[in-house]
Inverse folding.
């Protein structure tokens, strides 16, 4: 309440943890329920929601993900290992970070719009609840509102997300019939995939005028030999 009343900004990671596949996880409702309660109770006049997509060429934990998929137990996290371990942060090549912001919107307005929908739906004869058309935030309505809020934020994060170069490379490599591909063919397939994604209405991270060959080389360097083996001398 104090943070919102003072107009301060704060960040919330709505998924709660990082996905192993890169796909968005179901929302965690804890912090959202506090924010929602602040507005519904009128302790806070309003709150502006700004869904943000943050994507990486390579996430810090990727090497540990590989080990876990191979059946090795998860290594207990610690600050010392994070900074100085064999895959410590300071020695990693993480590539680019892409941050995208969705258009901000008023939580108060969102709540009012949802109340209008609930009241209209519940006024229909035969609706469970006996046709209650009150505008009170009952416990049932609050639960529905919270879930709608969580998935609305996730949907808007997804709307502004982009496909990173390393994801393009990985998709090509994982959908090959054989065990590998020549570099020139990899570049051709990445270019084809970029156009395919765009035709379907998706977004691809900007190459900033850099040739696809350079983008692929940088992507392979970021992914590293543990993920993508390279045989020298092939076309």
């Amino acid at each position: 309440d104090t943070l919102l009343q003072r107009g301060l900004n704060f960040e919330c990671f709505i998924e709660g943890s990082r996905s192993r596949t890169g796909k968005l996880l179901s929302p965690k409702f804890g912090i959202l329920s506090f924010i929602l309660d602040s507005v519904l109770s009128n302790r806070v006049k309003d709150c502006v929601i700004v869904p943000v997509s943050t994507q990486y060429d390579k996430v810090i934990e990727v090497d540990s993900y590989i080990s876990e998929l191979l059946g090795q137990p998860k290594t207990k996290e610690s600050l010392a290992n994070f900074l100085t371990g064999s895959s410590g942060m300071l020695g990693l090549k993480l590539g680019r970070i892409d941050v995208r912001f969705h258009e901000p919107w008023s939580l108060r307005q969102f709540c009012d719009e949802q109340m209008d929908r609930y009241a209209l739906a519940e006024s229909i004869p035969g609706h469970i609840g006996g046709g209650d058309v009150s505008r009170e935030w009952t416990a049932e309505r609050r639960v529905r509102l919270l879930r709608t809020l969580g998935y609305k934020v996730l949907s808007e994060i997804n709307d502004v997300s982009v496909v990173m170069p390393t994801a393009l490379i990985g998709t090509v490599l994982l959908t090959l019939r054989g065990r590998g591909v020549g570099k020139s063919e990899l570049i051709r397939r990445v270019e084809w995939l970029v156009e395919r994604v765009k035709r379907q209405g998706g977004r691809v991270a900007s190459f900033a005028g850099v040739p696809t060959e350079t983008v692929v080389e940088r992507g392979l360097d970021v992914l590293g030999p543990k993920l993508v083996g390279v045989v020298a001398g092939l076309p």
Observations:
- The radius of gyration is 23 Å.
- The beta strands are 48-49, 52-56, 97-101, 105-106.
- The mean pLDDT is 84.
- The first helix runs from residue 2 to 5.
